[in-house]
Write a structure and sequence with these properties.
The protein has about 130 residues and is of the alpha+beta class. It contains three helices and five strands, in the order αβββαββα. Helix content is about 25%, strand content about 20%. The longest helix is centred in the N-terminal third of the chain and has 14 residues.
Amino acid sequence: MSHLEAVHNEAIVKARGFRRVKGWDQHRPNYPGRSLGEHHAYDWEDHCYMLKHKEAPTVYVSEPYDLEGEDFAELAELAKDGWHVQINEGLALYNPGHTIPIWITWANDSTDYNLLSSLDVRCDPNCVIC
């Protein structure tokens, strides 16, 4: 059911006004001391894409298959540096049920945290996935 879940999750993300863009741009979260030219700046970067919205900052999404101790420390550092870091377990677009979607956006006054929340999933009441 992974493909059906991916289509379902993509529809929810689009319904929130986001469009998906492949890869990350130069404004991405940066690992100190590593070049942006390297394939991955963080070990937990996998299946990366951006979610663009006309009323919200860009959301940088990584969908790794697992997270380990050092990964959580790096995500905490990003949060400490002003990034909003959130794991949206129910909204994987790459391989639902197997990957862990991490949503990262620059936290500022225009950040709509309700828009970013995976808890606010509106779906058809007859949805076989929900």
